[in-house]
Automatic annotation (TrEMBL):
Single GO MF descriptor: lyase activity
CDD domains linked: DRE_TIM_HMGL
Family in the record: Belongs to the HMG-CoA lyase family.
Name recorded for this polypeptide: Hydroxymethylglutaryl-CoA lyase
């Protein structure tokens, strides 16, 4: 037992940064409208729990994503903590300008590792999608605004099946070389396993430094936590997650929510990895938004603590 501990422990990071995507990626596909006031309350609770990076909204057409129509109000209403980054997803230049006007600290752009998914999601090829982001990257550089990149379908696609790790690596490298300070690798439909995730990360880290990569797992097949553990062993120390396990993908049939932040922090605590997050306050934030949505949290840890309290 001691030998196992000695050989495995050094590979794990001592600190993991949680990128909270619940207020944006988590809520965007929820049917029940959430008011700007309740979103602000959720973001405030997350910040109070110690979450240092919160994706707080998206500046997209309300026609396509009605839940994000209040993003300007959310950003302008927030009482901000200097230690917290309040970020926004910006799919085009108009969205970037709106995010800047609302006071977003940072922006995110996205591409896919699957040509079919790119066409279905944003009606253009991978190459065209990245070209569309070049004006945002240039404007952000001039404004001294950091840009985070997302790559979706990094192990599987609902239309193409398995995705080549080399294809993921190429897209990630392109985003990084064009100015994204960090690239988040997303298993959009949750089909990854530790084996496929390891192969993908090995391919990507050959082109982009591991320290500049993050992981973003959905839990469709119940593999998110094991995939995160595999990623941690390879040197990943930034993990995207959503409070209460909110989210899904409208273009991926059957894809369940993002891995729950509560479950990730429970895992990190059990491994002795610091995240600077107050677990009890995090649970309360998840219960708050779940109550507003009229449903139980998807987080197994959250539900277990609720059952214990009853």
């Amino acid at each position: 037992m001691n030998d196992i501990t000695q050989t495995s422990s050094p590979t794990l990071p001592t600190f993991v940064k949680i990128v909270e995507v619940g207020p944006r990626d988590g809520l965007q596909n929820e049917v029940i409208p959430i008011s700007a006031q309740d979103k602000v309350s959720l973001i405030t609770q997350l910040a109070d729990a110690g979450v240092s990076y919160i994706e707080s909204g998206s500046f997209v057409s309300p026609k396509w994503v009605p839940q994000m129509a209040t993003s300007t109000e959310v950003f302008q209403t927030l009482t901000r903590k200097p230690s917290v980054t309040y970020a926004a997803l910006t799919p085009n230049m108009k969205g970037f300008e709106a995010a800047m006007a609302a006071g977003a600290d940072e922006v995110a752009i996205f591409a896919a590792a699957s040509e079919s998914f790119s066409q279905k999601n944003i009606n253009c090829s991978i190459e065209e999608s990245i070209t569309r982001f070049e004006p945002i990257l240039a404007a952000a550089k001039n404004a001294n605004i950091k840009v985070r990149g997302y790559v979706s379908c990094v192990v599987g696609c609902p239309y193409e099946g398995n995705i080549s790790p080399d294809a993921v690596a190429l897209v990630a490298q392109t985003l990084y070389n064009k100015g994204c300070y960090e690239v988040s690798l997303g298993d959009t439909i949750g089909v990854g396993t530790p084996a496929s995730v390891t192969k993908m990360l090995q391919a990507v880290s050959a082109r982009v430094p591991m320290a500049k990569l993050a992981v973003h797992f959905h839990d469709t097949y119940g593999q998110a936590l094991t995939n995160i553990y595999a990623a941690l062993q390879l040197g990943i120390n930034v993990v995207d997650s959503a409070i209460a396990g909110l989210g899904g993908c409208p273009y991926a049939k059957g894809a369940s929510g993002n891995v729950a932040t509560e479950d990730v922090v429970y895992l990190l605590n059990g491994l002795g990895i610091e995240s600077n997050i107050d677990f009890n306050k995090l649970l309360s934030a998840g219960w708050f938004i779940s109550d507003k949505l009229g449903k139980a949290p998807i987080s197994k840890v959250s539900n277990a603590y609720l059952a214990k309290a009853q």
